[in-house]
Amino acid sequence: MGSDGQDDRLLEQAGQGDEKAFAQLVERHADRVFSLALRVVGSDADAEDVAQEVFLMVWRRAADWRPGKARFSTWLYRVTLNLSLNHRQRVVTRHAALDGVAEPEDPAPTQEKRLDERRRKERVMQAVAALPEGQSIAMTLIYEGGLSNAEAASAMGISVKALEALLVRARRKLRKMMAR
């Protein structure tokens, strides 16, 4: 029996669910399928992907194969070529899409921004330290300590209204000091 006849017989058996016959068919044609795919797609990994797609298609369509209509090997290589070209186009399209995408900005602040932020914080701390003692303590408890107005007032032994008055005067003075 010639190789076409043997392929037809193996394909018929594979179409009936015979995994061993399918494995023999794969073994007979895998190297040539891989080589053709490799020539088209250019990388071993992509050629392996294409070869898997080809043989998956063979397995799914084995039951539909009609011997004598065409040579199995001719059909197999045509399928390999088509899937390889499709795969290569997907890869090219994917790379082209990525080429058009701007490089994302690093969300971390630059050294210059960190230095500016540190200087600004130092200026604010110096300004807060230069406030009258009550205002300085109120600002520190609220903004550095994270206390609520009621908690800060309690810690200072004053009413919430008195604390709020200290904060208003402190913010006003800070604005003036920072504007200079």
Structural description of this entry:
- This protein is mainly alpha-helical.
- The protein folds into two domains: 3-99, Orthogonal Bundle (Rna Polymerase Sigma Factor, Chain: A), CATH 1.10.1740; 111-179, Arc Repressor Mutant, subunit A (Orthogonal Bundle), CATH 1.10.10.10.
- 79% of the residues lie in helices and 0% in strands.
- It has eight helices and no strands.
- It has helices at 3-15, 19-41, 44-61, 72-99, 111-130, 133-144, 149-156, 160-179.
- The longest helix has 28 residues, at 72-99.
- The radius of gyration is 38 Å and the shape is rod-shaped.
TL;DR of this structure?
The chain is mainly alpha-helical. It has helices spanning 3-15, 19-41, 44-61, 72-99, 111-130, 133-144, 149-156, 160-179.
CATH homologous superfamily descriptor of the largest domain? RNA polymerase sigma factor, region 2, helix turn helix motif
String of helices and strands = HHHHHHHH
- Per the CATH scheme, the topology name of the largest domain is Rna Polymerase Sigma Factor, Chain: A
Rg over CA atoms: 38 Å
Number of helices: 8
Strand content: under 5%
Which structural class do you get from the secondary structure elements? mainly alpha
